[in-house]
Amino acid sequence: xxxxxxxxxxxxxxxxxxxxxxxxxxxxxxxxxxxxxxxxxxxxxxxxxxxxxxxxxxxxxxxxxxxxxxxxxxxxxxxxxxxxxxxxxxxxxxxxxxxxxxxxxxxxxxxxxxxxxxxxxxxxxxxxxxxxxxxxxxxxxxxxxxxxxxxxxxxxxxxxxxxxxxxxxxxxxxxxxxxxxxx
Length: 183
Prior knowledge:
Layout: E1 3-8, H1 14-28, E2 32-37, H2 50-55, E3 58-64, H3 72-78, H4 82-87, E4 94-101, H5 108-121, E5 125-126, H6 134-138, E6 148-151, H7 162-182
Parallel strand pairs: 1-2, 1-3, 3-4, 4-5, 4-6
Helix pairs in contact: 1-7
Keywords: Flavoprotein, FMN
Organism: Pseudoalteromonas piscicida
Domain Flavodoxin-like: 4-176
């Protein structure tokens, strides 16, 4: 079964919760999930290496929204990957993106597009959330066709809604299916 790298930065826990939904879904469907972060924030965190990118069969990449952009920790890491780009190491690997913001209009879609840019430059195949996921049409919280999202709201809740969980699971399932077809 494919190995999916789930690479994320989480400031308050929302993005970590989403990453764990991705991992649980992938493992429950027989895949291998590897959770990595950009910087150690808790004892159990494992910091990503470029070799993690090279050896994975697919990538789920997420950060919180920072004014419609990825977290600086993620950007700093991607800026070190020119050697992988020069060798074409990530070409044709499937990938998806996910994010969290404080409000419905807090920049989730802009962030998802921003997260996509280094993946596209590396030649990765970007997967969104298709509209055959019924929760995408009904959500009043997170979830976009560009990727899974969470909206923390005025209470800054890190708890994902059932709709957000289903969209995370759908994105993870699709990533695993495509990675499986390609490996």
